[in-house]
Amino acid sequence: MAGKGNALTVRAVASAKHPGTHKRPVRLGDGGGLYLQIAAGGGKSWLFRYRVRDRDREMGLGSADPDGRSGGVTLAEAREKAATARKLVRDGFDPLDTRQAEEAARRAAEEAAALAATPLTFQAVTEGMLAEKEGGWSSSKHRAQWESTLRTLAFPHLGSKSVDDISTDDVLNVLRGIWTKTPETASRVRGRIEAVLDFARARGWREGENPARWRGHLAEILPKPRKVKLPEHRPSLPWREMPAFMAALRERSGMGIHPLTFAILTAARTGEVRLARWSEIDWAQAVWTVPAARMKAKRRHRVPLSPAALAVLEAVQQHARGSSSLIFPSATRAGAALSDMTLSAVLRRMNDGCGGDQPRWRDAEGRSIVPHGFRSTFRDWAGETRPEGREVAEAALAHVVRDKAEAAYARSDLLDRRRGLMDAWGEWCSKTPGELVVIHRHRPA
Question: Is 277 helix (H, G, I), strand (E, B) or coil?
Fold first, then answer.
């Protein structure tokens, strides 16, 4: 390499060539850490080498352009850039870190300018909020539901309106058409509109009260959602048919059989089961601990495992790929979880093969059962046949205690009392039709 005394010239930059004897780039020095780098293919670029904080570093200064006609960096420009970098090094700064910080600031300024130039419509603010909260959602499904309900139900009315102009009447125009038809969905939409407008206010894009606020505002105009219509429960199998159903389920095959069986025997939500990992299973204590992040109530939930539930785990344990792997992974996508549709498909196939005018496995209203409905089946069975009582059955379902006074004292998860309940449920589900004798729990007169 050339030293400081052998400064490059414009002609030397233009005529410099790679020797072709090897594939490594060659470098011609201009002094002060500036080099002309020539690749084996003939491409030329500028490189600045320096040492800062006991580290040798290299920083590219752009492609070399001898005469300044091709849009690259001329020798004079490269020397100016190198001089600026040397001053940063003398002042104790790393030129590479400085350049990255400047580029980040430039991008942020461009994004801010683009946002300022974009009309602050409800749709634009919603999309901005979703982007800023990316990574903070409990699940990708929750995030998708959030966007889908607003895009479908709110955007047609509010999407093009400025967030600062949205009024109570605008919000009511969204809600009145769905409040009595689908009160649960309507209530969620209202809460999501409120969140978007709160976000806009926090960013200084609107002022005043939130027109989507419920307490002390819309509550004075709209009926309470739970007063409008009782929630429609998922189709669930009558509990007396569980042994026959489980016997039929044991005759089936497919990737959804084991997770569906495990969900039934643990009375867990299908999402909790599909994402369950081997590290959550305590074999010695026969307990499955579902982390708070995967629970609807965001509280850790311990599930006592009955012999029947443990048998399901033992049946699939030979396929485990490590202590932290999924218990019920997808068979078609490596490392991925099963979809909800996989479990639903099991029930659909069981009904498709029965024939007749009505599905074989149906609820009291004749509707085909769904996986989530087995939680209601379990609750009905516990309420009608078991002595443990309401609080134990509700704890088994990981339901939140609604009464604040009661919740203040409900510190225990009643694990020991739930163990007997889950063992009995596993025994009931494992009975054969010839063993069925229903014994109701004693009720005081």
Answer: strand
